Amino acid sequence: MSLLKVAVVGVGALGRHHARILAGLEGVDLFAVADTNPVQGQAVAEQHGSRWVSDYRELFQEADAVSLAVPTHAHLAVASEFLSRRIPVLVEKPIACNLREAEELVRIAEAHDTLLQIGHVERFNPATQAAFERCSNPRFIRSERVSPYTFRSTDIGVIHDLLIHDIDLVLSLVNSPVQSVEAFGISVMGEHEDAVQARLRFQNGCIADLTASRISPTAKRAMQLWGASGCVTVDFTSREVTSYRPSETLLYGTPPLERARKAGANLEALKQDVFGTFLKVDSPDVSTADALTAELDSFVEAVRADSQPLVGGLQALQAMQVAEQVLEAVNRHEWDGSQQGAVGPFIQFPAEQRRLAG
After folding, report:
1. What's the CA gap between 156 and 150, in Å, rounded?
2. Facing residues of 279 across strands?
3. Where are the domains positioned within the chain?
4. Contact present, 316 and 96 (Cβ < 8 Å)
5. CA–CA distance, 116 with 36 (Å, rounded to integer)
6. pLDDT per residue over 58-67, tens digit each?
7. Cα-flanking dihedrals φ and ψ of residue 218, to 5°?
8. If pLDDT is split at 50, 70 and 90, which confidence band does 337 have?
9. Exposed, middle or buried: residue 248 (CB in 10 Å: 0-12, 13-18, 19+)?
């Protein structure tokens, strides 16, 4: 098997991990890294026995594929140059900073029949896969993705920075078009929204309530899935997955409320029987495999096999379309018509931010 010559463009906070993982993948030659910061670029290149270039255009003649971890506002400009030369590209999420640029990037990839994968890494989290297997047809979804402010990805708001993960996950699970979107949010640090609450209603009746914040004192990435046969909870960070389903005792035995209403019923004992006797609790072992490694490995395999990636341009574009609806709903929202919230002023986003879709 010949070595696949891969380069990483942008080796900052996330890109340096792309370089580290690609350098260790079997059958991959991390032949170069590109970064405008010479100190950073040279350090990463030396660490992995690669070479550093300051201009990504120097990679055109040699690269079989590239991984891009540049700022979001540069995704279209950089990725399009590789795609137009039929060089497969993995672009970190989100696919672009707005819907118009996302559509253009997908158009370029299709016009040149070249692989475009988007780094929605949560799809490769083993906890995601374990949870979704246990609730494949949810009726209600609740997600929470919050973190402290990192001063990274400041060229986009929390919708495209964090909420896009859960939008993508929900769209991959709910096999139905989005019927309506409601949302509100606030900007605290300036320029873009920093906290958002959104509700997605799907044509099949499923409802998804999504929370995202990058001004939280603590970090959390979790989701609940409610279906006809029970509930599944997943913590994407700790990889704890728990499902709750009615037991045969609950389905076919004497109902617990009927038991509780009998004379002399031991309510404390019945309380102890809720989880285990009436509801079956399943906490499967979840793989510790690294999600980013799985994502990059899948990209390499898709390039080799000339196959469709798990999260291609079209899937990422669908997530961006919903993200844009959420942003529009945020910008339309007012509290009691006064733009005054319960805990402080609602900050209306500037008009230029409302025109992100072009």
Report:
1. 13
2. 246, 275
3. 4-120+291-309, 124-290+321-332
4. no
5. 24
6. 999 999 999 9
7. -130, 165
8. low
9. exposed
What is the third-level CATH fold of 124-290+321-332?
Dihydrodipicolinate Reductase; domain 2 (3.30.360)
pLDDT of residue 333: 78
Mean predicted confidence (pLDDT) in 339-343: 37
Measure Cα distances from 38 to 42, 45, 52, 66 in Å.
Answer: 6, 10, 8, 19
C-alpha separations of 68 from 9, 56, 221, 311, 346 in Å: 5, 10, 24, 15, 35
- In order of 23, 48, 52, 228, the CA distances from 42 in angstroms are 15, 10, 5, 55
| Secondary structure class of 226 (helix, strand, coil) | strand
Cα three-residue angle 353-313-84, rounded to 5 degrees: 95
Q: Which two tokens stand for residue 280?
A: 């079956």
Burial class (CB in 10 A: 0-12, 13-18, 19+), 86: exposed
Measured CA to CA, the distance from residue 292 to residue 8 in angstroms comes to 14
Select the more confidently predicted residue: 165 or 341: 165
What angle (nearest 5°) sits at the alpha carbon of residue 211, between those of residues 139 and 346? Answer: 130
Q: How far apart are the C-alpha atoms of 327 and 307, rounded to whole Å?
A: 33
Token code pair at residue 68 = 């891009």
Class of domain 4-120+291-309: alpha beta
Q: Give a three-class secondary structure readout of 131-143.
A: HHHCCCCCCEEEE
Report the DSSP pairing between strands 207-213 and 195-202: antiparallel
Amino acid at 287: S
Mean pLDDT, residues 49-73 taken together: 97
Alpha-helix runs per DSSP H in the chain: 15-24, 38-47, 75-83, 99-111, 126-133, 158, 164-173, 248-252, 256-260, 267-273, 291-305, 313-332, 351-354
